[in-house]
Specification:
Elements lengths: L15 E2 L5 E2 L1 E4 L3 H12 L4 E4 L13 E2 L9 E2 H15 L2 E3 L3 E7 L2 E6 L2 E5 L2 E3 L3 E3 L5 H5 L5 E2 L2 H4 L7 E5 L3 H10 L5 E5 L9 H7 L5 E4 L2 E7 L6 E6 L5 E5 L2 E4 L3 E3 L29 E3 L11 H23 L3
Parallel strand pairs: 1-7, 2-10, 3-4, 3-11, 4-7, 11-22, 13-20, 14-15, 14-20, 15-16
Antiparallel strand pairs: 5-6, 8-9, 9-10, 12-21, 17-18, 18-19
Helix pairs in contact: 1-2, 1-7, 5-6
């Protein structure tokens, strides 16, 4: 079991482990900002709460070095340390944990059953906060240099490249939005796009054309990211000529999309055409008692603070749902 205790990040409060024989008011699947924020609220509401945290707890912030845009930390905070603090807060209030991935979710009358670590856990309501994962290039160097010049979030890490030269990989809305954001920070920006035209919206393309520090390399793909301890350059392949070239950069932002982690619920709840959980009234799914929060239902903002906000909304709606159950509504 790869639990939080097995990692170098020790919690300061004794954590309670989940009980398969117990019926929980709320089961939360996922332990990133959305899931932990939801848990802090549900347990404070007096609702028995279980987090199925997964093997890789903490979400995407576990691969982030310094977070400088989360409120309350004027000097910035290490991503894993921020998640440890959230975990501590949830543990302090008595949230229970299962440090395995959730493998199955089924409806059972007016309750839900979640299968994790060889046991079934029962809840009267469920909050899905499984997040989304960045779509990767699939390069070994991409993983090796993550946090050392390779990033998937321009808003999170752009400031580290002030007056530097960066490359953005992609050609959709995310890539162009990142380029426009970074144009006020970096000295030079290269957009590396594998096609001859953008897939982004017309308005973004129009704004991009107004910038004089952004250069587009059409029909190019990244075949390697170079550097020992940090990013120093990228190796490109020109798809038209089949020539290779080296482009010196300080950072690489990969913006080729996200993959929402919806395998657990894809046959239970309604999904959007892009595969995200479709919600109404912010966090409600089409299944009563089943809520969604964070990047698994939010393809637009995808920030830790917005995920936390959606988690709080889901907690409040779960309480209202449970109050209705108890009142027979």
């Amino acid at each position: 079991m790869n639990s939080i205790i097995g990692l170098s990040l020790q919690v300061d409060y004794s954590r309670k482990l989940g009980n398969p024989n117990k019926i929980y008011d709320v089961i939360i699947v996922g332990s990133g900002p959305a899931g932990l924020s939801a848990a802090i609220y549900t347990i404070r509401f007096g609702l028995s709460t279980l987090i199925v945290s997964g093997y890789n707890w903490g979400g995407q912030l576990m691969t982030t070095t310094i977070v400088e845009n989360y409120p309350g930390f004027p000097e910035g905070i290490n991503g894993p340390d921020l998640m440890r603090r959230m975990m501590n807060q949830a543990a302090r209030f008595g949230v229970e944990f299962v440090d395995y991935d959730a493998d199955k979710l089924v409806l059972d009358g007016n309750s839900f059953k979640v299968y994790a670590g060889g046991s079934w856990y029962t809840g009267l309501s469920v909050i899905i906060a499984t997040g989304a994962r960045y779509r990767e290039l699939g390069l070994e160097s991409e993983k090796r240099l993550l946090g050392r010049g390779v990033s998937y979030c321009a808003v999170c890490d752009g400031y580290f490249f002030k007056d530097g030269t960066v490359a953005i990989i992609g050609g959709g809305d995310t890539a162009l939005t990142d380029a426009l954001y970074l144009s006020d920070i970096a000295k030079k920006i290269y957009i590396i796009h594998r096609r001859r035209e953008f897939r982004a919206s017309h308005n973004l393309v129009t704004e991009l054309n107004k910038k004089n520090n952004i250069q587009v390399l059409w029909n190019h793909i990244v075949i390697d990211i170079l550097g020992d301890k940090k990013v120093e350059a990228i190796k490109l392949l020109d798809k038209e000529t089949n020539d290779e070239k080296i482009l010196e950069v300080d950072g690489v932002f990969i913006a080729i999309g996200h993959v929402p982690n919806t395998d657990l619920v894809k046959n239970i709840v309604e999904l959007t055409p892009n595969g995200y959980i479709k919600t109404r009234e912010f966090v409600k799914t089409n299944v009563p008692g089943l809520f969604a929060a964070g990047d698994v239902m939010d393809p637009k903002y995808q920030q830790a603070v917005t995920a936390a906000g959606f988690g709080v909304m889901a907690a409040i709606e779960a309480k209202r749902y449970l109050d209705g159950l108890r009142e027979g509504k």
